[in-house]
Amino acid sequence: MDELNKTAATEPETRPEAAKLQDAPRRRVGSLTMGACLIAAGIFFLCYYFVPGFDWQLVVRIAPAAALVLLGCEVLFFAARPGRWKYDFVSVLVCLLANRKYGKNTQRDDIKSHQYIISFDPRDAADNGLTMEKAQALGLKFCSENFPGHPAIVCTHPDGHNRSGNIHVHIVIGSVRMREVERKPYMQKPRDWREGMKHSSTAQTMRHLRVEVMELCEGAGLYQIDLLNGSKERVSEAEYWARRRGQLKLDRENAALTAAGQPPQQKKFETVKDTLRKQISSVLYRTTSFEDFSDRLMQQYGIAVKESRGCLSYLPAGRTKFIRAKHLGDKFDKTAVLATLQANAERKPKVQSKPTNLAKLIDIQAKLTEGKGIGYECWAKKFNLKAMSQTLILLQEKDLLNEDDLNQRIAELETKYHDSLAVVKDLEGRMKANKELRYHVTAYANAKSVAQQLKTAKRPAVFEEQHRAELTAYRAAATYFKANNLTKLPSPKKLEAEYAQLASEKATFYEQYKEAKEELLKLKTAKQNVASFFREEEPAQQER
Fold first, then answer.
1. Contact (Cβ atoms closer than 8 angstroms) between residue 113 and residue 173
2. Helix H or strand E segment including 112
3. Are residues 182 and 282 in the same domain?
4. CB of 228 closer than 8 Å to CB of 246
């Protein structure tokens, strides 16, 4: 079965006749004929078994003709009557005749029909006035333009089994084409347009149909979604119902907590795949290489990544079976992941350097020697006067008008600068060691039970292959503990508290480092400006 899903809506024209037809019951043309045929078949078998001399061969020869006559009478009868009707039996009969004529679909496993679904947005009915009749008209137009030569049934439903509230159209076509059609650009082989050939849902055909749906809905003023670039998340029906059941259970639990005066801990239910998508996304957009991507997933969340036949699979902590990327969404497959990592690597961090309030004096004579003109000399003199005035203001604010005081303050700041930097680097090293130890402790605890199961496994090699990620992490952790002479493992909570304390201390010393660096730079610039100013003044006095 092939499916083509689209979310859209149309701009309607409300007419009283249409409203009346919508309210009228839908007549299923063909049901009467089918019922009559079933009764006739039952009578035939009764006569065959209980009536002596019954000519069953004659009945078999005239039965199809009688069924066609009865069906034709029923169709003409309802066609002459106002109201809504739906043909149930005609297409089925045509398909049977086509299969017999062309010798197709003779085996039980042959594909005898294809189904396409055009699903409209639930907002279409309220926002754009989408009705059943207009959706049916769009489905009939789409079917006639894209499936010529095939017997088809077009049926419109007001809602699905999941109570989503969206109008959708089912298009079921017989697999055998009953007449040759005009070749279209998307048709690749003669089977795509010749009589008596079966319908084929190739990639090019499906792309054409998606484009046709988007253009059809755009022309009708419908809500649009991109059908060509795939879905960021792929939610199967099983996951959908798991979400529904989980959310209902969570709502009941939250209601009980609220009634007891306790705030709910979680308001939105998440499946295993939902949590996995969130964790992968949090790491994906902060890394620049696949190695870094896989390492961070393992370190932060215990998620193993493997590549097989060009496809990625993910193994969350606590699971034994990998989840393929195609079951999570298009942005988690290999191509999309590598593209995102490449974009992260090319995206240069925007470093905004704060301009210092104090600028260095310009050596005007050196610039004139290089070939600068009189205009530059005038500008440079004004710039130096402004910079020198800022220098004097700074020295007055710091009470450093004496050269010895200035040199002493610069020496103090240099000591503070280097000491703070040394402390920050030491804390960063301790934080890195803490994070590494925390990762190995968590990995060891999660995989310890798997390592114990390996000892009693009936087929160790098979068990090893199935749990390679957990066992690899377990052995790496054991090697790390042995190398660092750790016999008693600290608790993860204790390590987290220690990490938080180290981070707080680092922030404090880093602020001291930044303050010392900024003030040191300003004072060194001021000292240099004073020296440059007096060097320029001495030649000027000698000339006078």
1. yes
2. none
3. no
4. no
DSSP state of 166: -
| Both tokens assigned to 119 | 């699903």
**Quick check: is 434 in a domain?**
yes
Q: Is 309 helix (H, G, I), strand (E, B) or coil?
A: coil
Position of tokens 């260095």? 360
What pLDDT digit, counting tens, does each position of 79-138 carry? 666 555 555 555 566 666 776 777 776 777 777 788 888 888 777 777 777 888 888 888
Cβ within 8 Å of residue 513, ≥6 positions away: 417, 420, 421, 424
Residue 198 dihedral angles phi and psi, to the nearest 5°: -90, 150
Residues 254 and 125 in one domain: no
**Spatial CA neighbour of 125 closest among 33, 28, 8, 206:** 8
Whether residue 328 sits in one domain with residue 295: yes
Whole-model pTM: value is 0.38
Q: What range does the domain containing 270 cover?
A: 237-346
Angle among Cα 344, 472, 293 to the nearest 5 degrees reads 5
**Considering the chain, what is the average pLDDT of its residues?**
78
Residue 420: CB atoms within 10 Å? 20
Beta bridge partners of 31: none
Q: 295, 326, 346 — which closes off a domain?
A: 346
Say if 404 falls within a structural domain. yes
Domain edge (last residue) among 190, 219, 248: 219
Please check whether residue 343 is in contact with residue 285, taking contact to mean a CB–CB distance below 8 angstroms: no
Does residue 256 belong to any structural domain of this protein?
A: yes
Query: What whole-number distance in Å separates Cα of residue 170 and Cα of residue 160?
Result: 11
Amino acid at 454: L
Considering the domain boundaries, does residue 357 fall inside one?
Answer: no
